[in-house]
Design brief:
Chain B: Residues 1-70 form the Lipoyl-binding domain. Chain B: Keywords: Biotin. Chain B: It comes from Paenisporosarcina antarctica. Chain B: InterPro entries: Biotin_Carboxyl_Carrier/Decarb, Biotin_lipoyl, Single_hybrid_motif. The complex is a heterodimer of chains A (452) and B (70). Chain A has 15 helices and 20 strands. By secondary structure, chain A is an alpha+beta fold. Chain A has 3 domains: 3-102, Rossmann fold (3-Layer(aba) Sandwich), CATH 3.40.50; 131-200, 2-Layer Sandwich (Dna Ligase, domain 1); 206-450, 2-Layer Sandwich (D-amino Acid Aminotransferase, Chain A, domain 1), CATH 3.30.470. In chain A, the strands form 5 sheets. In chain A, strands 13-12-9-10-11-14-19-17 form an 8-stranded antiparallel β-sheet, sandwiched between helices. In chain A, strands 3-2-1-4-5 form a 5-stranded parallel β-sheet, with helices on both faces. In chain A, strands 7-6-8 form a 3-stranded antiparallel β-sheet. In chain A, a hairpin with a 2-residue loop joins strand 6 (154-162) and strand 7 (165-170). In chain A, helix 7 packs across helix 8 (173-191). In chain A, 47% of the residues are buried. With 70 residues, chain B is mainly beta. Chain B has a single domain (2-69), classed as OB fold (Dihydrolipoamide Acetyltransferase, E2P) (Beta Barrel). Chain B is 0% helix and 53% strand. Chain B has strands spanning 3-5, 10-15, 22-23, 28-34, 37-42, 47-52, 59-60, 65-69. In chain B, strands 1-8-6-3 form a 4-stranded antiparallel β-sheet, with no helix packed on it. In chain B, a hairpin with a 2-residue loop joins strand 4 and strand 5 (37-42). Classes of the chains: A alpha+beta (452), B mainly beta (70). Chains A and B meet through loops of A and loops of B.
Amino acid sequence: MQKVLIANRGEIARRIIKTCKKLNIETVAIYAEADADLPYVKEADSAFLIGPSQVQQSYLKVDDILALAKREGVDAIHPGYGLLSENSSFARKIEEAGMIFIGPDPQTIDTMGDKIGSRQTMKAAGVPVVPGTDDGIETLEEAIQEAKLIGYPIMLKASSGGGGIGMIRCDNEQALSQNFVSVKTRAKAYFGDDVVFLEKYISGGRHIEVQIFGDTHGNTVHLFERNCSVQRRNQKVIEESPSPNFPKPALERLLQAAVDAAKAVNYRNAGTVEFIVDEENQFYFLEMNTRLQVEHPVTEAVTGFDLVEWQLIVAKGELLPVINQADIQSKGHAIEFRIYAEDPKTFFPSPGNIKKLQWGSTEDIRIDAGYEEGNTVTPFYDPMIAKVIIQSETREEAIIKAQKFFSSVTIEGIKTNVPLFQEFLGAKAFQDGTYTTAVLPQWLEQQKEEIK
Amino acid sequence: MKQVQSTMAGTVFNIIVQEGEEVTVGQTVMILESMKMEIPVEAETAGKIVKINAQIGDFVNEGDVLVTFE
C-alpha cells in the first residue's frame, strides 16, 4: 500500500494523513470549495477540488471520487467517519475497481447498517438486545399495539438512522401518536428509508461502547470500552475510558459480548459495538458502527496503539498487530472533549471566521483539530472543530488537568462549547462518575433554575 | 413590510406555516437543517404571512428572506 485517498475532510482527514506520513504512505486529499483553506488540504501530498460546498455535490459524489482515485493510481481509500464511511455501495465499487476499501466487508456494512437486521443477528449470536419489536412497524395502530406489550417509555427509532438522528423517546401513547409520522418523515429525508421500530427505553442508562478489531485471518480482539454518556441531542460530547462506576465482572461480560458480536459477522477492520447499560449493570446491544469512531483517540491513549495504523495493516490483509487479547492492556485514564462551533446554551451551530484560536497550555495534551486560527467554519458540515484528549494516571487527575487546560483556551469569532466544559467539569454529577445519558440536559436545567 | 430572514445558511427542512396564516411572536415558521442539526426559525413579530419565499429542500444563505409578513 503506497498511496491512499482520503474520502473525508477536517480533523479526521488530518488524523489519517498523520499516520500515513509515519508509514511513508503517500496521501491524496479531496476537498469541497468551502474547505480549500483547511490544514488537511495543505498537509496531504496532493489535494483535489471535488466540487461545490454542499456534501451532495462533493464529498458524497461516489463516482467522481472513484474516478479521481483511479486517475491518481491509489491503492486504497480511507472513508474516515460519517459521509461515505458506512456506504456499502461505495465500498463495493472500490473493491470492484481493484482498490482496497479501508473498512469492513461491504456485506457487514449492510447487515449492521439496518438496525432491525442487526438486532436479529445479535439475538441469534446470544448478545442481549434491548426488548423491542423484531420487525419494522408499518402503521401507528401497530405501533400503539406493540408499545403496550413492551411498556412505556419507549424509543421510536428509524432502522436506517444513526448519529443521534431519527430517534425519539415517547413516554405514552399520545407522544407516540404525535411523533410517529415525523420520525418516519425524518428517516426518509435523512437516510432515504422510512422503516421504524420500537425499543424499550432503558431508564438510568449509560452509553458504553467497545472498540473491536478483526483481521482477514479470523482474529478478533477488543481494545476495551469507552463511556460516552455525556450527550446533547443524542450526540456525544465527552467520552472516557475506562468507564467510571462499572464493576469488573460486568465489564468483562460486556467486552466478551462485543467480541461475540464481532465474530458473529466475521468482522474485519475497526468497529464499535454500542451498548446501553442499566442501573443494575445489565447491558443491551444498541448498534454496531462499522468504521473508525470520532472518539477512537480515547482508546489510543489508554492502549498505546495507533488505530489508523491497525486499519491500514488489516486492510492490506496482514495479521492484527496484536492477536493475543492478554497482550492488550489499558493503562491510566483518558477523556476526550469534542469542541463544537455552537452556542454553549442552546447548542445551535455557530459558523464564522475563527479570529483567534489559542489552545494555551497544551503540554502533554493531544489536540486533533480540523481548523486553525484564520480558518472559517462554514455551515455545510458537522460543527465539530477539534477534539481534545487528556490523559492521566487517574480519572481525578485527568479532570483536574482538563480544568486547567480549558481555563487557558481562547477562541474568538465563533461561539464554542468551551465555556460549557469549564463549568461542567466542576459538576458533582460528572465528577462522581455515576452519570447517565441524561446528565448534561439535567445539569443545564439545574443551572437555569439556580439562576432564577 | 416585515420579514423573517435566515440566521444561517442551510437547507429548508420543513415549513410549518402557510401563506395567509396569522402567526404570533415566537412561533416557529420554518425548520432549517444546517450542520447536521434542525434549527427552528421563529417569527420575531406577529402578523399575517403574505409570502413564503422558500420551498422544502431549498438551500438558503444567511440573510435570505424566508417569509414576508403584511
